[in-house]
């Protein structure tokens, strides 16, 4: 503990963001370049070096947070990087994308603002890359065993890297044309520039992992035949079966799922399209869904130059403080403002803008459209009708409202893995009552030698849980192939976040 009084004398301080007027005109990351390093050592000094650091329990990876906080406060970036990478394969991803349940579980957060753990983490990761501390770690010898990993999201990448480093020959199959899963095509560039993903993939290739993109296992390749070619298979296909909104007018043109819209915006950044096939430019947009995906849509819509935008959340507005039934160290449902919401709020203050960032307690009852005319080959959505929901779920009297909308984006979450490829039937893998892949305590499915990691088995979750599951599934595969393992297994299939 470098400064025993740091948590008493130093207030919590976040790095500056680029001005809204600047960042909504480009796709670069929101934080101001170089804003972390001047403040991060003092922020790390706020760590209390608790006797029982509950941040370890808040984070499923078991990150050694007090250790690397202390090392950063002493400017020992090399050892901080070593301690960080000991538990996390991709800290530059989690430092940018994770909602930081570790901070909610910080002991200091009992009665003060928590340590800025997430910012310390990303500062270490970025400094490690800049200083050349992150290098390929190929295995010293090969085991002669082969593993196929299906899916290249965070769970698949973590499993593949761990198994490659253990000496197995690993091939990652990805149905998209580039590796990364939702890290590539679901996460907007302004949250994580894809250069961070690309350099990690290059590290993995240098270690010996092979990537086979553009291959949809179950459709392009028979999954059962693939199983015969490998000693083990890891399913890390995510939970991409989206929830729909079956209300009158759903069939109208101009209503799209978020995961139809966001990938196209990312593909423009990759150079695949000069303009996105689905664009918000000049349109009146309504986003249905108040979660992170909805916020990603909001930031993207603003950058594409929408005429107006409203985001609907069916839930009531959360409070600003922890509720009594959500005590520390659980992750509380409190009012949070993402960078996209900050952008929408500031733009709403402009007299030229028409932005209503968030409407809470809103239930969509139907979409209304225009009849086909000479300028349009078909009728499309023109309005969304909603009613206000009370806390008991019933509509309140006099709360009906009509929003103009010629682009509607549905960001309602996911039901589980997709079923249309034949992957699970070909492998003989069983699903559980939730529609996710059934598995035992060792991440093994009902098919011998077939394992599952990440959202495909857990259901929709956070990136830290995906990486933790990838590491744990890799340990299970390593044990299956060799009878024993030294790979870490931070979580079990039945482990869940801290809840009240």
Overall description:
This protein is an alpha/beta fold. Helices cover 33% and strands 14% of the residues. The protein is built from 19 helices and 15 strands. The protein has helices at 6-9, 20-23, 37-44, 55-58, 65-73, 77-85, 91-97, 101-104, 117-130, 154-165, 182-185, 194-207, 223-229, 258-270, 292-304, 339-348, 423-427, 455-458, 463-482, and strands at residues 146-150, 169-174, 210-213, 232-235, 241-242, 255-257, 284-288, 308-312, 355-359, 362-369, 381-388, 401-404, 407-410, 414-416, 450-452. It is globular, with a radius of gyration of 23 Å. It starts with 5 loop residues before the first helix and ends in an 18-residue tail after the last helix. The relative contact order is 0.13. The mean pLDDT is 94. Pathway: Amino-acid biosynthesis. It is an enzyme of class 1 (oxidoreductase). Residues 38-69 form the 4Fe-4S ferredoxin-type domain.
Topology:
Elements: H1 6-9, H2 20-23, H3 37-44, H4 55-58, H5 65-73, H6 77-85, H7 91-97, H8 101-104, H9 117-130, E1 146-150, H10 154-165, E2 169-174, H11 182-185, H12 194-207, E3 210-213, H13 223-229, E4 232-235, E5 241-242, E6 255-257, H14 258-270, E7 284-288, H15 292-304, E8 308-312, H16 339-348, E9 355-359, E10 362-369, E11 381-388, E12 401-404, E13 407-410, E14 414-416, H17 423-427, E15 450-452, H18 455-458, H19 463-482
Parallel strand pairs: 1-2, 1-4, 2-3, 4-15, 6-13, 7-8, 7-13, 8-9
Antiparallel strand pairs: 5-14, 10-11, 11-12
Q: How many beta-strand runs?
A: 15
Widest β-sheet, arrangement of strands = 3-2-1-4-15
What is the overall silhouette? globular
**Residues in β-strands, percent:** 5-15%
